[in-house]
Structure formats: structure tokens, C-alpha cells
Write a structure and sequence with these properties.
- The strands form six sheets. Strands 10-11-15-14 form a four-stranded mixed sheet. Strands 1-9-8 form a three-stranded mixed sheet.
- α2 runs antiparallel to α4.
- The chain contains eleven helices and 15 strands.
- The N and C termini lie far apart (about 90 Å).
- β10 and β11 form a beta hairpin.
- By secondary structure, the protein is of the alpha+beta class.
């Protein structure tokens, strides 16, 4: 059977540069690598084909010979480039170092650690500020209690793989090239299980929903993450478990808005208190406190209550509570109340407007100047 064009194998255009070729190889090698395909023969053949294409197109001399003469230019049996004792382990060390944890030149493959898990936890602002212990239910893989995670039926044990003799890898010869690959029999574990556990079917782990008590420290905020070591998925065949990350999300509060260690809120005050002054009750996370409003307070005035905010989980001082007062316009007035307001308004007649309404005076003076400048 004739070989496919190497450029076609890697999915790049003829004349592609080294960067494009390497990028294409990484993508395809990850897709077809034996560690991922778990003994699928068709995928292994594709992996070998991708390796062969990359070995030629990544070498400047071989690539030039292939571009001029095709497969004949790189076939060692026909006088083309080949030989030289090249080892695909070099390619593995270069390309797979950041993907599979380094080259696979020898030694037994490690059992694969279990996956990390994430649990999204919604909390009220009060619970986040004070801290709380919560029980969460996590569906996951746990170590099989019947075989204690080994995957072998109780009373039996795993045996050394007859194909790789416990190395986890086998060497494939392609002409002058020696290629190390994950053993297809044991998938790189170096061992096989002749008599699998009936409960976990040889995996060493089973699916289960487990309940965990999680202590949430005081002061957490949205985006904070709590790591529970070893509470993720159990690894296969006794491999270490992954970790569980509890991701905190603090729900919106009907009164307070949090900004770091500080809290803020809007406090409505009546027209008469704004004008005459007085005391109002202000809510805090610790209960109500009195806030003194000075006379002639305008809307959007800020008042800071020291130490009534939040102490962050990262330490530091307690934040403040910032209250913004909003003067409420009275509604649903009776005829008598409306008449009283008219009398108040009339009582200002003849007096300087700036005396009672400084903001309005300043605004309308600015408007007059604006139009005078336009017409002037």
C-alpha cells in the first residue's frame, strides 16, 4: 500500500515552516498517543504515521529530499536519507516534554493520578463574613474497598506484564529507527490483572457520592477557592487521588454591596431629617446602630462607620461600612400636606435663592452663562 503524503498526514500545506509543522505534530500526537487511545490498534498506526511524517519534515535535509523526490528521497532502502541511528526518543523529549511530563526513554510509567474536581458553593454574605461549616455531596470515583484499590480480586494480585516485562514500554523497530511506545498490553502500567475484582472490574475504583464536611473560613469572597487535598477522584489501580477545589460564590445581598473589606449601602432619609437633622437607624451585619444626620444634608452624602465592614480571610484590619443617604421625595400627600409645602415655598419669596437652594442657584447660573456664551 502506498504511503500518504507527509504534508497531508500532518494537515499542513507544502512549504509549511518548522513552527507550523511542529504545532500540527503536537496536536495530532496528543490525539493519537497510546496513553490516550488505550491499546486501539488503528490509533496506534495513525500515531506511527504521524511520527514518520514529522521525523522527515522536521529535518531540513530530509525535508528537502522529500520535496524533490517524494518518498523515494527518504527511503533508506532506495538510497535516500534514513539511518544515522536517529532515536524518536529525542523527538519525544522535545515535543512531548510539556504534554506528557517529559520524554519516555525508559523506566516504568507511573500510575495515573486521579482527576481534580471543582465544587461550586453559593453562600450568603453573612455566612461568608462569619465563616461556616457546610456539608457538600460530591459524585466522584473512590478507591474500591473490596480490593483496596489494587483492581485485583481479593486474595490475588497483579502480575508483571508479559509483553514489556514490567517496563511499561515496548520498543518498535522501523528500519534503522527504534521507537519507544507505551505497552499496548498493560497501557504503560507494567502489570496486568489476571483475576480482576468483581466490584470495580479491575479499575481499582468505583463511582460513589460522598459527603464531606467543609469548614469555610471567615471573610471569604467570590472567587476564593478552598483546596481539599486528596478528596478528588481516586486514581486507577491504586494511584493517588486528585484534589477537590471548593469555589466560593457569594450571593447578592438585598442591602449591602461588598468591595474588598468594605461594605456599602444606600439609606433613605426623609425631607425633614435632611433639612433639620436628626438620628436614624442604620443596619450593619452586627445589628442596628445610630447614625447622626447633620442639618442641611444633601442627597448622596457619604457617611463612614469605622470597623463595621468585613475582615478579609487574608488578614488585615476590619473594613468600614459606607452609607450613602438618599433624600426621599414625599409621596401620597394629603391636601393639607400639599398646602403646607406650598406655604413653605412661598415663604422663600423675596429672599436670595442661594440661601435656601445653593445647588439650584449654582446650576441655573451655569445654564445662563452657557447660553450667554453661545449668543455672545
Amino acid at each position: 500500500m502506498s504511503k500518504r503524503d507527509y504534508y497531508e498526514v500532518l494537515g499542513v500545506a507544502k512549504g509549511a515552516d518548522d513552527k507550523e509543522i511542529k504545532k500540527a505534530y503536537k496536536r495530532l500526537a496528543m490525539k493519537y498517543h497510546p496513553d490516550r487511545t488505550q491499546g486501539d490498534k488503528a490509533m496506534e498506526e495513525k500515531f506511527k504515521e504521524v511520527q514518520e511524517a514529522y521525523e522527515v519534515l522536521s529535518d531540513e535535509q530530509k525535508k528537502a529530499a522529500y520535496d524533490q523526490y517524494g518518498h523515494a528521497g527518504v527511503d533508506p532502502n532506495r538510497g535516500g536519507f534514513g539511518g544515522g541511528g536517529a532515536d524518536f526518543g529525542d523527538i519525544f523529549g522535545d515535543v512531548f516534554g510539556d504534554i506528557f511530563g517529559g520524554g519516555r526513554r525508559g523506566g516504568q510509567s507511573r500510575a495515573q493520578r486521579g482527576s481534580d474536581l471543582r465544587y461550586n458553593l453559593e453562600m450568603s454574605l453573612e455566612d461568608a463574613v462569619r465563616g461556616k461549616s457546610v456539608d457538600i455531596k460530591v459524585p466522584t470515583w473512590v478507591s474500591c474497598d473490596s480490593c483496596e484499590g489494587s483492581g485485583a480480586k481479593k486474595g490475588t494480585q497483579a502480575k508483571s506484564c508479559p509483553t514489556c516485562h514490567g517496563a511499561g514500554q515496548v520498543t518498535m523497530r522501523q528500519g534503522f529507527f527504534a521507537v519507544q511506545q507505551t505497552c499496548p498490553t498493560c497501557s504503560g502500567r507494567g502489570k496486568i490483572i489476571p483475576d480482576p475484582c468483581t466490584k470495580c472490574h479491575g479499575e481499582g475504583r468505583v463511582e460513589k457520592t460522598k459527603t464531606l464536611a467543609v469548614k469555610i473560613p471567615a471573610g471569604v469572597d467570590t472567587g476564593d477557592r478552598i483546596r481539599l487535598s486528596g478528596e478528588g477522584e481516586a486514581g486507577m489501580h491504586g494511584a493517588p487521588s486528585g484534589d477537590l477545589y471548593v469555589q466560593v460564590h457569594v450571593k447578592d445581598h438585598p442591602i449591602f454591596v461588598r468591595d474588598g473589606n468594605n461594605l456599602s449601602c444606600e439609606v433613605p432619609i426623609s425631607f425633614s431629617i435632611a433639612a433639620l437633622g436628626g438620628e436614624i437607624d442604620v443596619p450593619t451585619l452586627d445589628g442596628r446602630v445610630k447614625l447622626k444626620i447633620p442639618a442641611e444634608t444633601q442627597t448622596d452624602k457619604m457617611f463612614r462607620l469605622r470597623g463595621k465592614g468585613v475582615q478579609s480571610v487574608r488578614g488585615g484590619g476590619v473594613g468600614d461600612l459606607v452609607c450613602k443617604v438618599v433624600v426621599e421625595t414625599p409621596v401620597n400627600l394629603s391636601d393639607k400636606q400639599k398646602d403646607l409645602l406650598r406655604q413653605l415655598d412661598e415663604s422663600w419669596a423675596g429672599e436670595s435663592e442661594a440661601r435656601h437652594r445653593p445647588k439650584s442657584k449654582g446650576f441655573f447660573d451655569g445654564v445662563k452663562k452657557f447660553f450667554d456664551d453661545l449668543t455672545g
